[in-house]
Write a structure and sequence with these properties.
alpha+beta; 3 domains; Immunoglobulin-like
Length: 262
């Protein structure tokens, strides 16, 4: 919480224990004035620029508290004695005949609850599987039984993706020949996986001599490939492709660049 000294207008941050120690009275660390911190006490500071905190107006009647959060329970011994006395009375008491018969005739309703629990479990499993569908599709074991099922249903699984099998063969950066203040970044990418996979999202990072990042950009396949059919077909196993990116020149401090594939 925050409060303001009325003498030198210094605003301080304080905790509830500071107020409780002297019933709201505090001493200013700047001018040594003693004042009531409750006058301007606030949980949040107003937006800057600020000069004065609002002074709380005096109320004729104390405010009534209507939001309880805790009430101490009776002593444990009293609860234990009452529980013992009640259990003994219940043991010696004989329930009426109509009450006993109703208890025996009450039907069990566990079947609807079991069905609802099973339905919720199936729904939760389906949601988790959908959220992790990328991991299932990219896994070799899952694809072994997903592909035959998909062929029978007439569907097509997305291409399997593994960024760790993408190799960067070469890279180069040079000024743009026709656009002032621009650079051309080129690279050669090879798919070392045994399967075709989609073209990756390419992250290009430019940094200075101290390896401090100056500029960064992520390129989607549609931003560096103009052929939608090539994007849908993906990069074949063992195939190579050339990537060309046109970016704004971040300045002379950018002396190093790095590629990342996602």
């Amino acid at each position: 919480m925050y409060t303001q000294c009325p003498e030198c207008q210094t605003i301080y941050k304080l905790a509830g224990a500071d107020l409780a120690g002297a019933h709201g009275s505090v001493r200013c660390g700047h001018c040594a004035a003693v004042f009531d911190a409750l006058w301007t006490l606030t949980a949040q500071l107003p937006p800057e620029p600020l000069d004065y905190l609002d002074v709380h107006p005096a109320q004729a009647e104390p405010p009534q508290l209507d939001l309880p959060v805790f009430r101490p329970s009776p002593p444990d011994a009293m609860l234990f004695v009452e529980a013992v006395e009640r259990s003994e009375a219940e043991a010696h008491a004989t329930p009426p005949a109509f009450a006993a018969s109703r208890r025996r005739e009450r039907p069990t309703r566990s079947a609807p609850w079991l069905f609802a629990s099973l339905l919720l479990a199936i729904s939760l499993t389906a949601q988790v599987a959908w959220a992790e569908r990328g991991r299932w599709i990219d896994g070799a074991h899952a694809r072994a039984w997903l592909e035959p099922i998909c062929e029978r249903l007439g569907c097509r699984l997305p291409l399997r993706h593994d960024a760790n099998t993408l190799a960067l063969l070469s890279r180069d950066i040079r000024p743009h020949p026709s656009v002032p203040g621009a650079l051309i970044i080129s690279a050669t990418l090879r798919n070392d996986a045994a399967f075709a996979q989609p073209y990756p999202t390419v992250e290009v990072v430019l940094s200075d001599l101290d390896e401090k990042r100056i500029a960064m950009r992520r390129f989607q396949p549609r931003e560096y490939l103009a052929d939608p059919r090539a994007i849908a077909r993906g990069l074949d196993a063992g195939a190579s492709t050339s990537l060309v990116f046109e970016v704004a020149d971040p300045g002379q401090d950018a002396v190093a660049f790095e590629f990342k594939f996602e």
